[in-house]
Amino acid sequence: MPALGDPHARILIYGLAPAAHGGNRTGRIFTGDRSGDFLFASLWRCGLANQPTSTHRGDGLRLNDAWVTAAVHCAPPANRPTPAEREECSKWSVRELALLERVSVLVCLGAFAWDAAMRLLVARGGEDLVLPRPRPRFGHGAEVTLGGYTLLGCFHPSQQNTFTGKLTAEMLDAVFQRARAITGS
Questions:
Q1: Which CATH number characterizes residue 15's domain?
Q2: Count of alpha carbons within 13 angstroms of residue 104, beta-carbon side
Q3: Which domain covers residue 95, as residue numbers?
Q4: Can you tell me the distance from the alpha carbon of 132 to that of 136, in angstroms, rounded to the nearest whole number?
Q5: What is the pLDDT of residues 95-151, one digit of tens each?
Q6: How far apart are CA 173 and CA 51, in angstroms?
Q7: 8-state DSSP, 4
């Protein structure tokens, strides 16, 4: 699944994997499902997107200072990637992050993305960078600096979280506003 965004982005939004009936169907990450609807509306409200919706490739959506990608690049069965799938895709993520030279903040959508992002930064940082002990715990609004990057934890904008109020629009907006404050954008 190809990523989406501004190649000069300072904010990387790191998801779990393409949704079978969303990005996997439309060919663009977070596009065509309710998680994406919630995410792109927030990006628009926070000045990181030119429009509040994304329905299909070629719909005119442009991101500003943001890049959206996933820890796993194919739709996993039952939306549950295995550690082996995460590891297989990690080499793509390392290369992707290397190409995004201005990224300094990773917004991790969910605990899986949080763990994958820490592993990504260790892989990117080489032998000198090791995961801290104890490992920083995921939580909405969690913040940690690792290898020159800031990780921000955010509940995933899945229906399970948004329909129950575990994640509200205001909560998601606050994470993106914090990311913008860190980057000075």
A1: 3.40.470.10
A2: 11
A3: 4-183
A4: 7
A5: 889 999 999 999 999 998 998 899 888 888 766 777 888 889 999 999 999 988 999
A6: 15
A7: E
Tokens (6 digits) for 92 = 């793509």
* 35, 172 contact by CB (below 8 A): no
pLDDT in tens, 49-69: 999 988 877 889 999 999 999
Q: How many residues are given for the chain?
A: 185
Please report how many Cα atoms fall inside a 13 Å half-sphere around the Cα of residue 86, on the Cβ side: 20
Q: Cα(116)–Cα(111) distance, rounded to whole angstroms?
A: 8
Q: Does position 27 have pLDDT exceeding 60, yes or no?
A: no
- Total-model pTM: 0.89
Establish how many alpha carbons lie within 13 A of residue 164's alpha carbon, considering only the half-sphere containing its beta carbon.
Answer: 8
As for how many domains the chain has, the answer is 1
